[in-house]
Amino acid sequence: MSNSPVSNDSIAPSSPEPEVKRDQSNWILRSLKGPTQFLSFWAAIALPFVHLPLLTQGLGDPDVTLVFFLLLAANVFALYVGHGYKQE
């Protein structure tokens, strides 16, 4: 026993509350992962069919060109997010 003026008894143990919140947030992320990958996977398959009418119309109009590139970016993002769908 030490005679130090400061004892460790005054320090309360940390509450488990932050760990519970972390577990809940991890559970939410895990529960959203499957549906998000599912939607992204199928969006990546469907989006090229939306490109076809834009390409047949031609990309001469700046608005059509912008929409085409926005759809292309959305397709790349959907491919990235949905690439792990149904993989063990």
TrEMBL record:
One Pfam family here: DUF8028
Transmembrane segments annotated in the record for this chain: 38-58, 64-82
Compositional bias annotation for Polar residues: 1-13
Record keywords: Membrane, Transmembrane, Transmembrane helix
InterPro entries found in the cross-reference section: DUF8028
Keyword Transmembrane helix belongs to the record: yes
Region annotation (Disordered) ranges: 1-22
Protein origin, superkingdom: Archaea
Protein name in the entry: Uncharacterized protein
UniProt lineage: Archaea, Methanobacteriati, Methanobacteriota, Stenosarchaea group, Halobacteria
